[in-house]
Amino acid sequence: MRDVADIWSYLAEGPLLWLTLTLVAYSLAETIAQAAGRHPLANTVLISVILLGLMLWATATPYATYFEGAQFVHFLLGPATVSLAIPLYAQGARLRRAVLPVLAGVGVGSLVAVTSALAIARALGVDMPTLAALAPKSTTAPVAIGIAQSLGGSPTLAAVLVILTGITGALIATPLLNAMGLRDWRARGLAVGTAAHGIGTARAFQVHPTAGAFAGIGMGLNAILTALLAPAVLHLFQ
Amino acid sequence: MIRALALILLCQLAGETVARGLSLPVPGPVLGMVLLLGLMTAFETLAQQVKPVGEGILAHLSLLFVPAGVGVVGHLGTLGPQALGLGVAILVSTALAIAAGALAFTLVARWTGGVGEDA
Lengths: 238, 119
Description:
The structure holds 2 protein chains of 2 kinds.
Chain A: H1 4-13, H2 16-35, H3 44-58, H4 63-75, H5 77-83, H6 85-90, H7 92-97, H8 99-123, H9 128-134, H10 141-151, H11 155-180, H12 185-207, H13 209-236
Helix pairs in contact in A: 2-3, 2-4, 8-12, 8-13, 9-10, 9-11, 10-11, 10-13, 11-12, 12-13
Chain B: H1 2-21, H2 28-42, H3 44-58, H4 61-64, H5 66-75, H6 83-111
């Protein structure tokens, strides 16, 4: 029989190990979320990230090694974004009846997201290059990285802030909207997709198909709007 | 199934090409989504073919964010002394944006055409 360390170093080289562990961690997170009665704080993304983060730390595995396996999952983000056309198509009639409310919801949500984040961060002493990375935090990661770079912010920091925003939105949306007494799934989904991009949209799909479809619309429109808004708003804080 | 997957990837490919070619601020997959929506509206049978595969991918949308999320863990240290300010800004502004966006939708929906849909 071979040494365990030998087998480990062989497996740690290829993509199989970390791809498998990503799926296992997510399945475990699903089980935990179900056991917690789908409580909003038992978020599947957050639980999986904590589990895998602990595993990487315990085995001293660099992220690049992990990503070699996880890239197959990560790649599907693109096709998934394209597939958002399917719920949009299914909801076409409801969407056409709600064009004005959709535009109002995305417009207000997008403006509040950028302006309030910059105002609060500046009041708490965050410097200008960091504000540039923070401004697009509510948009989907590839857009946020592009916007942050054009404003002079760090792309890595922008990606980190995007993910943190998404997880925050997915965690707080349900209790917040319940407390406000808003029960229209269209309004709820749209607002979450606008403020918390794909991670918020994923959460919305877990709650209700209509919320998911409208979250996808919010995410798509906000990506375009933030590209136009963020430079102007950031300019006000200079 | 392979046909549907090929169509989804073709839409993404076309979206990436246009976004890069015209240096648009919109990501390629978002343009691909618009393209697929147009194709499904034009060809009813296409919609039926793509539906099961696309819904299969979307059913596990949360899983797809896990690799990027794990990447964040290693970078939390880089937030440095500004971590508190950034954390508060993200928490409060995300809550404000969700509340304001949902309220704006609801109010305009009331003004422009009857009652909100609860379903």
